[in-house]
Amino acid sequence: MNFDFSDEQKQLRDEARKFLTEKCSPKAVRAVLDGNADYDRDLWKGLADMGFLGVAIPEEFGGAGAGHLELCVLAEEMGRALAPVPFSSTVYLAAEALMIAGSDAQKQKWLPKIAAGEAIGTLALFEGPGNPSPQNIKLTASNNTLNGVKKPVADGAIADFAIVAARNGSSGRESDIALYLVDFKAGGVEATALTNVDPTRQQAEITFKNCKAEPLGAASEGWSMLMRVLDRAAVLVAFEQVGGADRALEMGRDYALDRIAFGRPIGSFQAVKHMLADMYVSATLARSNCYYGAWALSTDAGELGEAAAAARVSATQAFQHCAKNNIQVHGGMGFTWEFDCHMYYRRANALALGLGSLTYWEDQLIDRMRKRNAA
Amino acid sequence: MNFDFSDEQKQLRDEARKFLTEKCSPKAVRAVLDGNADYDRDLWKGLADMGFLGVAIPEEFGGAGAGHLELCVLAEEMGRALAPVPFSSTVYLAAEALMIAGSDAQKQKWLPKIAAGEAIGTLALFEGPGNPSPQNIKLTASNNTLNGVKKPVADGAIADFAIVAARNGSSGRESDIALYLVDFKAGGVEATALTNVDPTRQQAEITFKNCKAEPLGAASEGWSMLMRVLDRAAVLVAFEQVGGADRALEMGRDYALDRIAFGRPIGSFQAVKHMLADMYVSATLARSNCYYGAWALSTDAGELGEAAAAARVSATQAFQHCAKNNIQVHGGMGFTWEFDCHMYYRRANALALGLGSLTYWEDQLIDRMRKRNAA
Amino acid sequence: MNFDDTPQEAAFRAEAKAWIAANAPKQYEDELKTASLGRVRLKDANILQVAKAWQKKKADAGWACLHWPKDYGGRGSSPIERVIWQQEEGAFGKLSGLFIIGHGMCGPTMMAFAGEEQKRKYLPPLASGEKIWCQLFSEPAGGSDVAGLRTRAEKKGDNWIINGQKIWTSGAHYSDYGILLTRTDPNVPKHKGLTMFFLDMKSPGVEVKPIKQASGQSDFNEVFFTDVKIPDSQRLGEVNDGWNVSLTTLMNERMSIGAGVSTGFPELFDYCSSLMLADGPAIEDRNVRSRLANYAVKASGLRYTSLRAISALSKGERPGPENSIGKLVAGSMVQEVAMYALDLQGAAGVLSGPEDAEVAGKFQAMLLRSPGVRVEGGTDEIMRNIIAERVLGLPGDIRVDKDVPFNKIP
Amino acid sequence: MNFDDTPQEAAFRAEAKAWIAANAPKQYEDELKTASLGRVRLKDANILQVAKAWQKKKADAGWACLHWPKDYGGRGSSPIERVIWQQEEGAFGKLSGLFIIGHGMCGPTMMAFAGEEQKRKYLPPLASGEKIWCQLFSEPAGGSDVAGLRTRAEKKGDNWIINGQKIWTSGAHYSDYGILLTRTDPNVPKHKGLTMFFLDMKSPGVEVKPIKQASGQSDFNEVFFTDVKIPDSQRLGEVNDGWNVSLTTLMNERMSIGAGVSTGFPELFDYCSSLMLADGPAIEDRNVRSRLANYAVKASGLRYTSLRAISALSKGERPGPENSIGKLVAGSMVQEVAMYALDLQGAAGVLSGPEDAEVAGKFQAMLLRSPGVRVEGGTDEIMRNIIAERVLGLPGDIRVDKDVPFNKIP
Q1: For B268, which residue in chain A has the nearest alpha carbon?
Q2: Could D347 and B353 be called an inter-chain contact, meaning their C-beta atoms sit closer than 8 Å?
Q3: Which residues neighbour A249 within 8 Å (Cβ) at sequence distance 6 or greater?
């Protein structure tokens, strides 16, 4: 048994970490945080040059064809570095949806561009408050024309195309929901960036008005394909969360060693030691759950649904816990804009919601455990 | 404003504490714990002589006619001392039910005996797993004859009479439930004590076979009277829980001051200090919620329902929290039979269930808050 | 056990109620009511002007700093009268936020340690809000360890020359005066080398810079001192006795009660009462209900704990440090509440703009402000120490720096 | 990333599987599977005899103490083979509970510090379960502070005379030998005056008394020593070097992995899957589901954490103290799980008799046993210290007793 990443995958991690330490310093993240840019274009270009954007895209479509374990490794590093680029929307959502449901032509058109950093894609699913569910999708599709509003859409205002979940029936069944691919150049698309808790990752509102779209995959299977995309993305985002949690833990640990109060490092006070120990515990539990998710993702195992939900729940808790208490360990300084703690806090809370809430995924986890036990 | 007990009531507390310290030492509690007695008869007699059993019973029925604030004060002391007597079943449940719903004759027959310590009463409500709800009551009543099984019944096998919740209709409405008073001498009653988590307070199964009973209050109002009895009892039990929580906190505090490890009192380690501080916090929150419950109980205010549920939830959490972590502060010794910690742990977990589960009361609390907001 | 006023209390309440009804700036009441965590702001008015006007009006009518002696601009009221006033002033009390430090900490310190002339000169304008005071204790190196401060004060003739930096000074940019804790002798253990002063914030060499918080707002400042001159006559207490002077200040901070900490629960309950989830009203979802119930009993527990403290006051007793549970409980609770409210919104919970977010972004603002609550005015960990040591009588932490000269401490 | 055995591992697994299928005491399998927290008991058989028989059978076939050298009764297996064996042995592994201390702690200590003859004499019968060993470190005064022990050993000629008391000795009443940590010099700091021995538990002057636990069971003993004589030849390590010897023992305790801590989650999930609540199946109640999900990810997180440790072993790496999270997480979780299971039962949750209680009182037993789990083998607080210090590299607690002679410590 080898329930761990391979040496090659660990090399990839070191490579990515080295690259990101250089190209994605906190200073770079702050450029986007402070609104001087909507995302880090140089970094995006660099990621393409490194072959990171297409790591899981087959070579025939311009990717490296490495696989999803490699993508998990990169996701963790992107999370650690708070990379201010549309990586998750483009790579975990758009590219995955294309690989699952896209026609050959669609793949040929978009995947190479994604790998080359020439196209940003996203998934337009949500329509205001609420979690993924067929009845929450009101945007209509009739003969490949979309009308409606999606919000929030990750990176929507910098995207070149989107996978859109639309309603093309009224039977009240899942089969009413179909997926469409919209090239924003086609027109009928109006996207506006919205203020959000984590300015380093854009959120937008997109209005589709008589917008021409091509179907993605079989119309009647839209919902099940969507669920599959979300499960796969859940594992990848969970790795970003674990990367962020680990970094937040390290920041807290380092500060606790440096910072002197009452004549000793604050890390020598049990209140601080044990807070950090508990952060380590949740980060470790999350990492282990993510490893199982990575195995299920890479082998497309039947356990993927359950594994993804467990990784998602565990990693969401861990990142929120670590980001929150990293600020607490830093005390007043941790609450300043100048210190980086709040950037992790913002990201932790944004990632916790992006694919649907923690409660939603808790619910999914139990459903899937029940299915397994029933089987 | 005086959101506190009066000086007279505080005197009563000191008196009760003095009495119980003498008559209800841990040694006395252990006599019942170890099964050498089903309850502490001397203590029961003593409580009667002190006038404690009838403190809230009107003088015309042989009580002291003092009131429910005084009863709250006593309840707290009974909880502190883990008094191994049928106080809650007899005084909070049976006596309260009689005072709310009893006919003059019924009050004349039983209340003086209760005050004198000559009769033990209880409420026979539950029929196996589940919380208070009309459909959980299967025991039937037809022309004042009861058939069915109640379990668990607090102090059921030492009781002289019981208030029994029975079904005398099948409309599926609350009005199907009526209350009856059963004198165990009447026959048709078979009670067996059952092993339970807290041996210092008996739990029993009672089988009613063609058992003659008298109606208590109007048949159709059985359920609403029952709810009222439970709300009033919830406040009183909450005071027992707060008394227990406070005592567990004190035990932990004292041990943390005495016990030396690594050359210093363990109470000088933040891990222990902060554990105790958190215990203090929950005990204080619970006490404050209980005071509000006491006010609502003593004035029979419209807020009683909400106040009772809040006191119940808060006090249940506090006693479980303090009892559990008192053992932890004591370390290995806290897990010995010889130390008293486990007696509080047992009582905390027994009281948490007696009137229905924590979840049940959380639910009640929200219902009642909604009602208030609607009003 | 009852909630009734004594006759005197009732009379006082009636008088206060009537005066407030007649004089309060009603036009801001709604805005003040809904103000969430952090410094209060007003849409179409300058909060500073509105607050000063209201404070002056109160002072002229004898309703400012009620518990202060008349001679110093107060009313000589009992503590309970002060609480009754707070209850009646309600949302308008939030306008006093700007004066809390001055009234709650600086004033009492001046009263205890300034000369009679100085008191008569400085306290009345402080009470009436014409002059605003700030408190200059915390330093970057200090944090929870207040006595670890480094700002130097050196005697030159009749003056002291101040050099150093303070942080977390709230209101420094609009303050007229401040009380300042400095190090006058680094060669003795740290608590023994401190001295307290008060100074004119307009003195040459005082530079105020706002601190941008994690939330993006700026409720606090850094204050830099470069060769700032303070006459010895503005020293409070003996030279090197500043630590004891500061304890008076801090005690007074902890004494202020009834102020009421924000738990976020009422907002959450309201939100859940109207929210619809995929399969029904949120308030009927058992998971939501259980969470709400747990928050509810904490919120009510804190409310009734402060009522108990008020009752103690009304009996002339001194409420103990039991009150420090308020901030400890509310701090982490408000953060959890905010996170849970966002969770209930699903992916859209990430939106924070007033126009796009649910309930105008109330909970997103709460989320971003809440980490500060667990730190300001004593971290959760310091609060637990206070409870453990002052309430439960447990030993203090081991102090390695206790008898070490300050300049020998790492 | 995969769960496949290497060819060698697969071969070993097959061999083990086959032998176990042919030889294990199947008649007890179900009972062993459902055994809950605490010492395992069997209804119609003496657990001690059954366990010894199974261990002897394993030893005769070369399946005992797999990672020990053949000469000492082991098999010279790799750590990963040992884990594979544990996986295949499954529920029958619970029969090894009686030998864990001896095999996991006493054996390794003997191997490291006993003479060659002694090893050949004592280790094989220890491996085969014919002789049971116990560990005598903890004392009433010691607790978490193991080195605070008081049991004296005084040299008399070639013997040492032992006087004192040990506590929390598991299995002392059926043990043949024990390793004993004593104080040989009270005039030096506490870690420097300890010496380790092994002794025959039947020696005159050794008295064993069972400890009745809060749960009512007795899994542990007190052991009293009155003028017990131990020949110097049974000293392990140098005089006054006992602390370092004991570290070997304790390290080995923490090294044992895959053993798997009990979280109570599988039991709770099964229970909820069949339980009906007033308004429907428990498993469809959103409050229940949320609680279950939170427990589920802890349980799976622990499971996969140990799989990661096993992978490290299989690569010949040494798994770190990361494993200490298992007990920390499971300890408080199993207690919460038990409380919640009772809550789901309502008032009837208080009943604990197998015939009256839900699922034969499984959760009531768990409730009463669980407080011990948070304490035995290191309290939650000690575990957090270990993680903070050994994993995160944070400073140790301040040690006021570090350089103080033992007899000068309060």
Answers
A1: A270
A2: yes
A3: A276, A279, A280, A283, A322, A326
